[in-house]
Design brief:
Layout lengths: L1 E6 L3 H17 L3 E6 L11 E4 L2 E4 L5 E2 L4 H9 L5 E3 L6 E6 L2 E4 L4 E2 L2 E2 L2 H6 L5 H8 L14 H9 L1 H16 L8 H4 L1 H10 L2 H7 L14 E4 L4 H9 L5 E3 L4 E6 L7 E5 L5 E3 L1 E4 L3 H8 L4 H8 L24 E5 L8
Parallel strand pairs: 1-2, 1-16, 2-12, 7-17
Antiparallel strand pairs: 3-4, 5-11, 6-11, 7-8, 9-10, 13-14, 14-15
The structure holds flavin-adenine dinucleotide.
The site of flavin-adenine dinucleotide has 26 residues, from helix 1.
Length: 340
């Protein structure tokens, strides 16, 4: 029987184990799957705590339905009824800038305006900033192979657009610095628009209106009534054949000693595990340590991947203490407001 070892019990490791078990069952094949997790719990970054009757998320608070796989998984696991969407009246996104919350104007495609009037009326960007953004319509194309996202946005739309529109939204998605992110790896479609139309604004205005891809009863982001850990609990229940081992920190993966065994997986506790295939789902840094003896070059590349640290602070308010309508999705604060 083939032996597969999965390292890491976050959602990647768990869904891989679930899928392996299911595919083997469907194909009538036998596969022995062992999942090794260093901590004392499953879920990795997915952490839901119950505080005062509220589901408080320490990590992800929702998943995107436009990428359909998480929703499909929920259907397979039979937890569709547990799903909840976002408040349909709360679609506005705010930016805290120049002393107050200002809404993203309608007609923004990502961070590029495609409707003139709402953008001109909005106080989000100052008049000099708006005029600078308009220069995108006639400035020349860039020539570099891969510049940073920050340099690209500043070149096309100006510094204020970068600071107020792009950086804060990106910080929420990538927890990174736009000056250090590759444009080709993050938003290659913007580069294509520049190449094809010579302008982001012209390019986005030429795109056909986006069809509404949302399935009935879903919103763009979905979560579970009892929080994201529902997914972890339910998927774990549906992999009865997988051996789950907690408190097992893998230190080293090496070539198998005996013929027919590809790898040997060494963890802090327990005997070495033989494996025909190993699936690594830990951070790149942890993976680099495990692979150092097996493939030095790969370990070096993994070690070079930078990570940012983040903190989550959750505040809860009574509805009667909020005097304004709840019509917003949330707000972001540009770095240059110096409020952090
Ligand atoms: C604050 C925050 C908010 C987020 N919000 C969202 C969101 O709203 N929507 C969204 O889609 N995504 C969000 N993400 C991203 C999402 O949470 C992650 O992409 C996803 O959970 C990663 O899952 P994973 O299994 O790949 O990794 P992890 O969850 O990191 O799991 C890796 C596991 O490997 C284990 N491990 C590490 N080293 C070893 C070792 N040597 N031996 C054995 N085990 C080891 C770890 O203990 C961990 O359990 C957010 C992330 C964070 C941090």
């Amino acid at each position: 029987m083939k032996q597969v070892v999965i390292i890491g019990g976050g959602i990647t490791g768990l869904s891989a184990a679930y899928q392996l078990e299911k595919s083997a069952r469907d194909a009538g094949k036998a596969v022995a799957v062992t999942l090794l997790e260093s901590s004392g719990r499953l879920g990795g970054k997915i952490v839901t705590e119950k505080i005062g009757g509220l589901a408080v998320e320490g990590g992800p608070d929702s998943f995107l339905t436009l990428k359909p796989w998480a929703l499909e998984l929920c259907r397979e696991l039979g937890i569709e009824k547990e799903l909840v969407g976002t408040n349909p009246r709360g679609s506005a996104l705010y930016v805290y800038t120049r002393g107050k919350l200002r809404a993203f104007p309608q007609g923004m495609s990502g961070t590029v305006p495609t409707k003139l009037w709402p953008f001109l009326c909005s106080g989000l960007i100052t008049w000099p900033g708006k005029l600078r953004m308009a220069r995108d319509l006639w400035i020349a194309r860039g020539g570099q192979v891969d510049e940073s996202l920050g340099d690209f946005i500043e070149r096309r739309l100006g510094r204020e657009a970068l600071d107020v529109l792009v950086e804060p939204v990106l910080a929420g998605i990538y927890a990174g610095n736009a000056r250090e992110m590759s444009l080709q790896s993050t938003f290659p479609e913007l580069l294509e628009l520049e190449k094809k139309y010579g302008s982001l604004i012209r390019g986005l205005r030429s795109q056909p209106p986006r069809a509404n891809h949302l399935l009935p009863g879903t919103t763009a982001f979905m979560t579970f009534k009892n929080g994201m850990e529902t997914l972890v609990e339910k998927i774990t229940e549906k992999m009865p054949q997988t051996t789950l081992r907690l408190g097992q920190t893998v230190r080293r993966i090496s070539r198998g000693q005996s013929p027919g065994q590809e790898f040997e997986v060494m963890s802090d506790n327990g005997a070495p595990l033989k494996a025909d295939a190993v699936l690594l789902t830990s951070s790149a840094e942890a993976a680099a340590g495990m692979l150092a003896g097996l493939n030095g070059r790969l370990a070096e590349l993994l070690q070079g991947i930078a990570y940012a640290s983040t903190a989550t602070v959750t505040l809860a308010f009574r509805r009667e203490d909020i005097l304004r309508p709840l019509n917003g999705f949330g707000f972001v604060v540009p770095r240059n407001e110096n409020l952090a």
